[in-house]
Amino acid sequence: MKETLLIEAKPREARGSNAAGRLRRSGRLPAVVYGKGCEAMPLELMAHDFERVLQHHRGEHLIVDLVVAGETKKALLQDVQRNPLNGRPVHVDFHVISMTEKLRVKVPLELVGTPVGVAQQGGVLDHLLREIEIECLPSDIPEQISVDVSALEIGKHLTAKDIQLDPARYVMLTAPDIAIAAVFLPKVEEEAPAVTEEAAAAEPEVLTEKKAEERAESEAASEEKEPQEEKEKEKGGKEKAERAR
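Above: the chain's sequence. Below: its structure in token form.
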């Protein structure tokens, strides 16, 4: 039988974000309780007492005796919203339940063992599915479900149907063909081809030869151009002399 804890709360009258902020600054937590046959009711409870309860129970599905205005209800801790900066709880949801009616819950998966494909074949384990959904009585909700992956070889995988559950207590709701873990070879990045010393030395030579050819062509063009310019100057000088006469 799963251990249950007592949490005392009282109806919350003030609503809105400003009221919730004042409540937190006073050391209390805003909360809400809802469920079958129970209208949603805003609550407030002592933050210190609630955090102390969480410290001793790592499971996500905690069943508590929720006492509100002198009435005790069996409730499942449905959700805890936390401050993203410090991780402290800022809001709590409780779900009223019946201990004789089955619930649908999501339970974390824990991979156990070192796969053969990792230890002996140089592979890498990939945890593909972090939680599965099951149906069971509240008292049978597990904190987590362990899956043995030690027999996994490279190229092999486990699916949800490989998880061993007691059929008398649990119903698997997750699709049976969904992969939960696999072992694969790590990808090897292709290296760029190395540049040899001969290739590195050849490049400057080609450039040098090309520049030398261009320089030679430029000098040849200049030499052809100079006599032509001298002839034109000489012709122009004769024409000027004739006009002067």
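The two ends are 135 Å apart (CA to CA).
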